[in-house]
Amino acid sequence: MIPVELILLGLSPAFFLCIWIEFNKARQYYNVKDSINNAFLALLHQGSDALVLFLMMPVFNWLHQFSLFTIEPTALSVIGGFILQDFLYYWFHRASHNVHWFWLAHVVHHSSSRMNFTTAFRQSILYPFVGMWLFWVPMILIGFTPSLVFAIVAINLAYQFFVHTQTIGRLGWVEHIFNTPVHHRIHHATNAPYIDKNYGGVLIIWDKLFGTFVEEDKAITIKYGIIGTLPDDNPLSANFSQVGVLLTQLKQTKGVKAKLRKLFSYPGV
């Protein structure tokens, strides 16, 4: 199995080519400082992710011995694993918007007023620490090898790079099944009808099944970012400003039970 970190690294020329084309075609969607910040956030994220995965892989391999089945990496099992992982990604993504603990990491991705291909790079170093990997454990316990699981995760995330753009319009029948730039622009919007919608990673069918799908309203001009104050254009502020928000809220909340409810309730500003 190809090491997980090499999958995204191998695709990086395609990513940078898309950025170059988009930048030359639609510079109005870019801010150089914002894009540089996004690049630094990506490097920090990849570093923390690789470190934690290296440290946790023995645990995942240990868990795999208790799996219900032995699933060999065939074409059929990879396709099945891809669909299952995308289903789990939907619930991870939905939890990341509705549980403050997970929002600590995911807020980084949304905390820019820009939407372009470099926004896909805007990721948090906190993902492995808040427990993103917990959502992939069911696949390991079913019988998928940890190396296959995290390779599928990487491919899923690679696909999502291509939906972070304002330069691609409607894609016809594709939009009935797959997450597309139109769907994902809605997901990044702070406009009231669009908040907490379209969580799908590769497939949009999960949103349609579970009531979180919304169509584009062409009368609405999308405003990107988050509710509340945007962080400064540097990796430290982007990664940790929401941690400060939560700590302030916990300090103002009396009682252990109330603090726990605050930690795992809907994020506040």
Explain what you see:
The chain has 269 residues and is an all-alpha fold. The protein is 58% helix and 0% strand. It is built from eleven helices and no strands. It has helices spanning 4-25, 32-64, 75-98, 100-110, 127-130, 137-142, 146-161, 181-187, 205-210, 235-252, 256-264. The N and C termini lie far apart (42 Å). The relative contact order is 0.15.
Shape: globular
The major β-sheet equals:
none
Mean pLDDT: 94
Number of strands: 0
Unreliable runs, pLDDT <50, ≥5 residues? none
Radius of gyration: 19 Å
Share in helix: 55-70%
> Which structural class fits the helix and strand makeup?
mainly alpha
Terminal CA distance reads: 42 Å
SSE map:
Elements: H1 4-25, H2 32-64, H3 75-98, H4 100-110, H5 127-130, H6 137-142, H7 146-161, H8 181-187, H9 205-210, H10 235-252, H11 256-264
Which keywords apply here?
269 residues, mainly alpha, 11 helices, 58% helix, 0% strand
Outline of the structure:
The protein is an all-alpha fold. The chain has eleven helices and no strands.
